[in-house]
Amino acid sequence: MEKRFEDALSMANAQGRGAGYWDRVMSYIAMVMYPQSPVRYKGMKFCADGFSFVMANAFVNKADPQPFRDIIFYQFLSKWFDIQKDSVTDLTHILKRVGDAKKAVNQNNMGYGLERALYVVSPDVPCLSEALDSYYITNPETLMYALENISKQPDRPELIIDRHIAAFLSVRDSKSIDSFLVELNSRDYFKRILANLRILSTIQRRAGLGEFPGLTTWLADIMGPVYDRYHDRSMREKVQKSVEKVKGGGDLGLLAKAIDDDAVWKSDLGEFKQAIEEYKRLKKEALSVQDKLKHPDRFGKEDGQEIAAVVSGVISGIIILAFAFIFMLK
């Protein structure tokens, strides 16, 4: 028994004596003293093959998710499995999922975190976004139809894709979202808006779905920050008109093409850079004139001297050429 107690302390000490140390000690002691009992941690008690259901239930009831982060990060289930002396149900698939989830729990970006861990550990759980409380979403297709219904509600959120939807899509249909995760987590709000549009248009195209007029209207209505990135007013107005033509049409691909034309954006940016350089040149010239005006007694003299030198040089050249010409005639 003393050996088991020492084993429990060794497991806890190997993970450091930081926050949650004594909770881990108590959990490990329970494991080594009663190997066939359920895993115990911070008031929870569950069998290894029921962990995914306990975690999903906690999210549904909006309980504190932090204990699940600890259980996944410190690999409680693997430790419980390692100390079993008698044969137990094959838990290889569960342990693999928990191991995969560990990669995400300490990342805060959308598409990661405990939300991603939930969908990795629980492959059958529906999307648990608060915006989808009235729906049972198990795939990207049903998500699109639910969002179409939500688009008609007056209290719809500003942005469409939240942390749960991002994690759900990344786990269940990575091709529709993973290439846009950088923009989805950008500090620039307009990039996050465009990421929402690109992700949903990708789902519509890949799944061969019909039109979503409500979604195109919803997305068109939040494009203000995207318009603001254009520096040229006429170009901005042109893009807005293009968006208005397809707004409510239901084709997210056409909306993306209207608002996210890379050639138009590069042209606007290039002209803006040229305008900046011209402004710098004019400002430098203005400062030079202001500096000269501070010395009115010398103002214009330097320029006059330069002009006089040029004129003198030209006249001298003419005279020399004239003498050379006369000399050649002789």
Provide an overview of this structure.
- With 330 residues, the chain is mainly α.
- The chain folds into three domains: 1-125, no CATH class; 126-260, no CATH class; 283-329.
- Helix content is 65%, strand content 2%.
- The chain is built from 17 helices and two strands.
- The chain has a two-stranded antiparallel sheet with strand order 1-2.
- Strand 1 and strand 2 (44-46) form a beta hairpin.
- It starts with a helix and ends with a helix.
Order of helices and strands: HHEEHHHHHHHHHHHHHHH
| Helix content, binned percent | 55-70%
> Judging from the principal axes of the Cα atoms, what is the shape?
elongated
Summing up helix and strand content along with how strands pair, one would put the structural category as mainly alpha
Instruction: Tell me how many strands there are.
Output: 2
Regarding quaternary structure, how should these chains be classified?
A: single chain
Strand order of the largest sheet: 1-2
Q: Any idea what the radius of gyration is?
A: 35 Å
Distance between the termini: 128 Å
